[in-house]
Amino acid sequence: MSQNRVALVTGAGRGIGAGIARRLASDGLDLALVDLTEEALSDTASAVEASGRRVVRIGADVSDRDSILAAADRALDELGRLDVMVNNAGVALVGPVTEVKPEDLERLWRINVNGVLWGIQAAAAAFRKQIDRGDERVVRKIINASSIAGHDGFPMLGPYSATKFAVRALTQAAARELADEQITVNAYCPGVVGTDMWVEIDQAFADLTGAAVGETYDKFVGGIALGRAQTPEDVAAFVSYLASTDSDYMTGQAGLIDGGLVFR
Length: 264
Ligand code: ADP
Fold this sequence. Notes:
Blueprint: E1 6-10, H1 15-26, E2 30-35, H2 42-50, E3 55-59, H3 65-79, E4 84-87, H4 102-132, E5 140-145, H5 158-178, E6 183-190, H6 196-209, H7 215-222, H8 232-243, E7 254-257
Parallel strand pairs: 1-2, 1-4, 2-3, 4-5, 5-6, 6-7
The structure holds adenosine-5'-diphosphate.
Residues 10-11, 13-17, 34-36, 40, 61-63, 89-91, 111, 115, 193, 195-197 line the site of adenosine-5'-diphosphate.
């Protein structure tokens, strides 16, 4: 059985999740990777293997409770333990609050909120199995994706903001509920990351408001105190801390890692 710590990262196929998986592998963790399809995980899995770490690829939809519970079980079975669950997978939705369609809201909520909630349940269940079988008593960690939009309601991003506020609420409540089992629950709140998601958000603003392509992205980046958009690696460095034993005493927090865009 592996003595390496093990993390499961959802939405690890691209963007921030891929950055987190690569970083945790270089930190020495073995990785279970989840995305909608196994194929989507090829590049990330290769990078993890190149770091000399073991990897399990799992095609699963985080909004499907049974699938994500099974994914955490597979990580435990195939990698021997599970120490860290990163509930990273998410989708964006752009549009005015007054015009959001029920089916779009439903999908957004199922992935961004229900997906995190099922991820918390899956992690807690896997962590409890290890405690029940007498594994070493260590602090185990749940790390959830919130956003700057989880601290502030941006125009055209109202429903998305609502899901990210909800992630902070779940993070706080679960942190209190699970603390006596030595499980910490924290969130990370990125700002403007140059990923495909931001390309899609920028394009949606252009389609809906008549803004030029790139204008919305540039406007957001213009508000960043440190003067540049962030990279998945910037986010992953903070998640690395949240996943490490250095953060064992921290729980219930939702840390902004945004270059100074939202101050709380
Ligand atoms: P970000 O900027 O947050 O990294 P991306 O859209 O670039 O956003 O990446 C999000 C990742 O999450 C993608 O790889 C996507 O396939 C994955 N993802 C989206 N929805 C789900 C879902 N329901 N289940 C699992 N993975 C998902």
